[in-house]
């Protein structure tokens, strides 16, 4: 205890602030990623709120997602089957990314890099299925950002804007994962003591992309 009755640590806290030292020991890379994700959260929130406002205010009937996003497989109409597979793939990729972070902090760069590449592969599969979904809606259903033969015209604009913006994030994440994985495999981060914090920073971005998809899935496909 200090003489003023407060814990001795409080003196260190005040001394760090007054000496212009780093009081909260959060690595700059991780802090910058959190700031970026916070700004991205505002953008996605704006998109989703705008989508809900448009859907509730339009007088024209909104298309039924179970009919729009259905696939006919072996003569059986399966509503949302492709979306369910896409969601499963992306959620699974979060698991492989978490394992990569774990192996990264253990210093097992080969397994960490391998799991990051597996995560990137899952992301690439997701983007491929999204491209198939887009082509089906554009070619077979005739849906465009400015028109929609199945109901409210705002449907096409909302769908392509929100899923396209998210797909762009997934694509960027796949590229990011591959670059970091190759650098991990090459041993670039073993210099200076072997700090694999970059794997966790990459994981933060990927988990964010997965979390955003959960909200898109709930608001756009299930509503």
Care to describe what's here?
This protein has seven helices and two strands, in the order αααββαααα. With 223 residues, it is mainly alpha-helical. It has one domain: Up-down Bundle (Four Helix Bundle (Hemerythrin (Met), subunit A)). A two-stranded antiparallel ribbon has the order 1-2. Strand 1 (70-73) and strand 2 form a beta hairpin.
Shape estimate: globular
Q: Determine and state the CATH class.
A: Mainly Alpha
**Number of distinct helices:** 7
Instruction: Please give the number of β-strands.
Output: 2
Explain briefly what this protein structure is.
It contains 7 helices and 2 strands.
Strand and helix map with partners:
Blueprint: H1 8-18, H2 28-57, H3 65-68, E1 70-73, E2 76-79, H4 81-106, H5 109-140, H6 154-186, H7 197-221
Antiparallel strand pairs: 1-2
Feature tags:
two-stranded antiparallel sheet; Four Helix Bundle (Hemerythrin (Met), subunit A); 4% strand; 223 residues; mainly alpha; 7 helices
